Amino acid sequence: MRPCNVLSRLASLLVAAAVALPSSTAATSSSLHELHNLVRRASAGSGAPNASLVDTARMGLLSSQRASWEQGTAQSALLEYDAGSWSVFAGGHGNGPPYRPGFQPSKTPDGVPLAVLSMAYHSATAQDGMGKLGMSITGDENMTDGSALDSASCGEGVLLAAFVAKQINATRGFWINAAQDQLDYVLNEAPRTEAGAISHRTRTVALWSDAVYMMPPFLAAYGLYTNNQSLLQTAYDQIRLYRQAMRFPDGPGEGLWGHILAYSANGTARWLDGQAWTTGEGWVAAGMLRTLASIAQSPYSTQMASQKADLVAWTKEILDASFPLLDSSSSLFHNYMNDTTTFRDTAGSTFLAYAAYRLASMSPSDDTHLAAAEKIYQATQGQLTRIGSYLTPVVNALDFGAQGSTSPEALSFTMLLEAARRDYHAGNVTGVDGPGTGRNGAMPGIKGGVAAPVLVAAVTATLLLLLS
To answer: What CA–CA distance (Å, rounded) separates 44 from 46?
Structure first.
């Protein structure tokens, strides 16, 4: 065959390969919008982050007005992506993050994540009179209403700043005072159920799946930083109590969690939102993994082996129940994953893919859902505009049943997935038993990945053409 014909056929094959990759609405008329930013699809095997996508997500995130939980989630995204060695997940080949007990260096290490510390500073300066971080912005807020636990998501960044400022073991100081006030509110002021689960709401007693990302990781991080096993245990206990109350015990949704469970004055519980909200499943899975990482990094890792085993099993339980419900045509979950009449949500889908990568890094045998997570990753690669809105729908962060075009949490989830996927391939995440026990080293591809089979087929076909 003549070279020009080979090149023509190769071009056709590559176009076909690109079309075969899942892209949801990428081919619709919305892709022609003047603000659409066509970013490259990342390699299915290398784990290299999509820098263009991350830069766009970061810009949109930092430009956004943020509520307390969005501020805390943004801190996590910046920490895990920009300064992974300072994240609670650090420790594939080293000694864990600098604040890990028994590994405090004599001087502050290089690479202090200043952006995270800056965000933590603003969380602390906006702390309300009850001790809730990031809650007092305009002066119009009501301290006795709203969420009791969203503010705790900002606590990990404040603890990191306290470590850098050498205040972790101090009796007083700007940073440690802010962290301690937040801890005191969660443990001693927030309402509780009769069983002891800390309410996600301030004025009434209600459990939200969101709370598992906001509160237990903060308690566990506090326990890790201060070498306090009681706080690590409390973090685990809160997840256990939430799971007992909110997990669907049987039926077609077995293993998933409902979203909002409210309690009356006499302790009777009723669902205010009893469906499996996709972002809520992500909040739970990711929150359990962050709590697990703190326990694994602590001196009590061996003593708390059963608690760690539970957290792995409970995370896997959610992923096992979720991924069979992934919509095959778009590689996205519906906003309520057990209701196919709801829209397909990019935000919650991205977050569950993040959890799948983090679990596979910490517990290498639990990699069942990586192929599906990679499909989600590839499906969302070209969906950000140049101003940080999404071409595919994301859930409205202020109205969880409604469709939106962007949100700070969706942009954070995009960065978090990039970090988790990169770290999985690099093998630099702590394992269940601490640094050095997770997945070790890069692998040349993802089992069951999306792009690789298509491209391999294209290359194989081209070689056959050359030989014909």
So the answer is: 6
The pLDDT of residue 462:
33
0.90 surpassed by pTM? no
Return phi, psi of residue 155, to 5°: -70, -30
In this structure, the number of other CB atoms found within 10 A of the CB of residue 227 comes to 16
- In the block, which residue shows the tokens 């889908």? 349
Are 338 and 252 contacting, i.e. CB atoms less than 8 angstroms apart? yes
Q: Is 279 left (phi over 0), alpha (psi -120 to 50) or beta?
A: alpha
Domain ranges across the chain: 1-21+457-468, 22-449
Give the span between the Cα atoms of 439 and 466, in whole angstroms: 40
Rounded to an integer, what distance in angstroms lies between the CA atom of residue 412 and that of residue 407? 9
Q: For residue 295, what are its two tokens?
A: 């326990």
Nearest to 358 by CA among 376, 370, 347: 370
CATH value of 22-449 in 3.30.420.360, 3.90.1150.10, 1.10.443.10, 1.50.10.10: 1.50.10.10
- H or E element in which residue 262 lies: strand 260-263
What was the pLDDT predicted at 42?
Answer: 61
pLDDT category at 46 given cuts 50, 70, 90 is confident
Q: Which segments of 296-451 are extended strands (E)?
A: 333-334, 344-345, 394-396, 399-404
pLDDT digits 0-9 by tens, 6-17: 334 434 433 333
* Whole-number average pLDDT of the chain: 87
Helix 68-82 vs helix 114-125: crossing angle, to nearest 10: 170
Q: Which residues, listed in sequence order, are joined to residue 384 by a DSSP beta bridge?
A: 390
**DSSP secondary structure, 424-464, as one string:** HHHT-B-BTTBTTSS--S--SS-TT-SHHHHHHHHHHHHHH
Burial class (CB in 10 A: 0-12, 13-18, 19+), 340: exposed
Among 267, 269, 221, 219, CA closest to 240: 219
Q: Are 438 and 361 in contact (CB under 8 A)?
A: yes
As a whole number of angstroms, the distance between CA 337 and CA 315 comes to 17
